Every structure is written in structure tokens, then in C-alpha cells.
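Journal club prep — side note

Before the paper discussion, L.F. wants everyone to see what a predicted structure for a comparable chain looks like in C-alpha cell form. Sequence:
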Amino acid sequence: MEDDEADFECDCEDCISQKPTQPLASDCCGSGCQPCVNDLYDADIKAWKKACFGRHHDTQVDHKGPETKVIETNSFKSFQLEDIKCESSDTWCYRFTIPDRGSLNLDVGQHLVLRAQVEGRFITRQYTPVSPLKARGYFDMLIKLYNDGIMSKYIREWKVGDMVEWRGPYGSYQYQQNKYTHVVMLAAGTGIAPMLQVIRHIVHNEEEDTFVRLLYCCRTYKDLLLRAEINQLTAYWNFTALYILSKEDESNCHGAFGEDHYFGRLDETLVAKELPPNTSKCQALICGTKSFDKDMIKYLRKLDFQGDIFKF
């Protein structure tokens, strides 16, 4: 039956109107995203062929089964936009309502895929929730908007009350309690999102002995995202943060009490200084722009880093 569904070709008007739109070559960023837009398309085509086959062959579908999930990986679901909060000059936090106080029930490090229809075709982008993993009734997304971004153009038009399509969760990151003595986080901009998930997961676990060090890079002090929560989390004994500001004027920067600042760029020398003496039991987590990620991996390899490296 599965082979018949896979080989089935339908040209009826009803089925063709529902056929998924194939992504353009330019829609794939080439950085190894999981899932890639092409993976999503392949899954959607498979589901479409199965539905078409069932429609034309009177296949009975058993709709009885487990309770409907809040969100699924095999289809997009619409969520209502509840609130929009400005986090910086180009980054916003969007809160979406989950009906009936449901929860995404994410695992640490997981992300969702956003879909939009722009200029007659579907596009997708990946974003990591910054709300607590088991938050009930809502989830929050931290999104940077670009002047020339196709998805950014769509997001700028969002209004409270709009319905927005999400799908997921995805992500291959798996954290094991006390596997590492240290977790060093190398983050830039909105790359703080998955790091925040991991930080909470570790410091809120009383059985954890892992020490977490966040190296968070932004151009200026005002560009630091979710700074208030990060500062609150530094109250835990096993978490510290260093704010690395590449374009900030040190003489005019007056941060909050207890904050640790570095004025300059995160280069190989600073990375070396921040690594623990024994890196064999250390995990390095990386999330930023393509160039940032590439540089961080290069530095770690040149420093003969012996631990595990994971790039979100």
C-alpha cells in the first residue's frame, strides 16, 4: 500500500490545488538546517500523495487515536498572536496563545518552523522559543527583523489577533545530566534563544553539578536581548555570563550592578581564556550568524578543544 501511495500521480483539480509548493533553490541556506526546507517539502509531498491516494481509492482512515497534540512535525498548525514586545531596535518578542492552556512540551534545545505565503509561494524559517519549555497557554518567539528579509517583510505585518502557522518541534540536541563539568556557550544576537533553554534546564535542576559560562556577543549594550532574565539567572551558583560588546563605547556604557562586560570582539585569545583547563569534559555550544559559527568552530579546533561541540 505504501509503495502504491508513493508512486501515485494525480492530476485532478482538487488534488492539484492542494499540492505543496516546491521551494526555490534560494530558499535553502545551505548550512545544514534540521529540518531543511527541502526535507519539509519531501514530507509534505508524501502526505499529499497519501491523501490523494485515499481520496481516489476510498481508503478508510481511522481518525480515532491518541489525543491531538498541540503541535506536530508532519503538518502546520495556526496559533493566534497574543502580544508583541520590542526587545531592541530590530528584534521583537512575539507571544502566541495555545488553546485550553496546552503546552508545547518541548525538549531542551528544540525549535519550531514558521511558514508564510509571500508573493504567491510558501517560505519557511526556524525559530527557537524563549518561553519555558513546559509553559502552559502560550509560547514566546524572539525574532530579528532584517530590512531586506522576505520573512521579515511578512512578520512586520503581524497584528495582535493574527493567526500564524507553526510546525515542530525539531532539534537533535540531547543534554545528559552531569555528563560535563563545564558547558561554554558562544552566542551572538538571537542565538541566545537556545542557550536560554539550556541554562534554565541546568540551573533549575538541583541534582546538576555542571558549571555554565555564557559568552554573549552583541554590537552594543542596547542590543543585548533578554538581559534582565540572564542577569536573574546569574544568581545561581553554577551560571555566569560575560557580555561581549564589539561596537560599544566603554566610557559611556553603564550596565547593571554585577554585570561582567568585555569591550571588543570574541576572538581566539578570549575564547582560550574562557575555556576551562581540562576541556575533555567540556561541551561548547554555538549559535549565531554563519560567519560567527564558522569562526567559533575554527577557534576551538585551533585551540585543540577536546570536548564536544554542538552548533544550533
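L.F.'s comment for the group: The longest helix spans residues 37-56. Keep this in mind when we get to the figures.
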